[in-house]
Amino acid sequence: MFSDKDISRFANLETPFYYYDLSLLQNTLKTCADAAKLYNFHVHYAMKANFNPVVLQKIKTTGFGADCVSGGEVSKALESGFNKSQIVFAGVGKSDKEINLALDEDIFCFNVESVQELEVINELAAKKGKKAKVAIRINPNVDAHTHHNITTGLDENKFGVNSWDLPQCAETLKASANLEFIGIHFHIGSQITNLDVYKNLCVRVNEFGLWFEERGFTVKVLNVGGGLGIDYHHPDQQVPDFGNYFKIFSDFLEIRIGQEVHFELGRALVGQSASLISRVLYVKNGKKKNFVVLDAGMTELMRPALYQAYHKIENLSRGKQVALKYDIVGPICESTDCFGKEVEQPETFRGDLYAIRSAGAYGEVMASKYNLRDEIKSVYSED
């Protein structure tokens, strides 16, 4: 929700830009940290959600680690001051260059996604005279009940080691002198709002943990990933239910003495903290459709074009009274450049300010230079 002071400030700024509510971000981070502390759980921030430097500083100060999925993210985490002992490196396609970077920096752990990757890390670590800590990312075949494009834990997905490859995985671990097995890792998808899904995940984590223990491995870390969703339809209900989320894992995981439980949360921490602020360029009224053409497009916020994702859209200049239905579109030369169809809004005019809410995750980080667009700017509540 924006105050009159916020809207007045926006009116004097060049659009489009991302507006970050840093007090909301700080409150979300503290709520998560306090809830995790009750169970001594470890949280790594999933950097792919947002690597805005101001946001990263807030997250680092909270004491969270970093979950990275590229060498660039590993470098950014280190540059931002995250402790290397709290940096994990996942990703189904790590290059030799990226692996060598992480080995040189002595990060906490590689989350390994194939038997072949184990062999490559072992070979590269041997050349450096190092021992790499690894966790095996297992595909648990658990349905996250989310959009099919952001489901990652089914047999049909590219991520993780499938159960039938685990025997070969165990053999490779035992034969690899430059690998140190520390645990198992899971991530079943993103924007999960049905918490019962995590109960099913816990059952699978317990099964796979026992499988490794029965073969002589010590499972020090249970990394259950993240994926906790946010409420895109009601963005003012801003902080996710971290308490119930963590309680499910406390209740349903069979945690051994000395085991650590790790999480990789991204969207839940940053999703509600930012809105994309845009200005109306043109209003096109027709017989079948009314269009509001904004100065922001899919180059600034890709999610609606990529996933058909919903974001609440608000006219900040005209109050709340609904008058017409509009297709809210951008200026990009693509028919998919549309934020919402038949969206009820007050009658809209050129120059009106619009806010596209809940854009703090997978918004700014996915911005592109397509159509040679200007780089998107960021504005902060504390400026």
TrEMBL record:
Enzyme kind, highest EC tier: lyase
Record keyword Lyase present: yes
Domain of life: Bacteria
EC number: 4.1.1.20
Alphabetical UniProt keywords: Lyase
Protein name: Diaminopimelate decarboxylase
Natural source organism: Pedobacter africanus
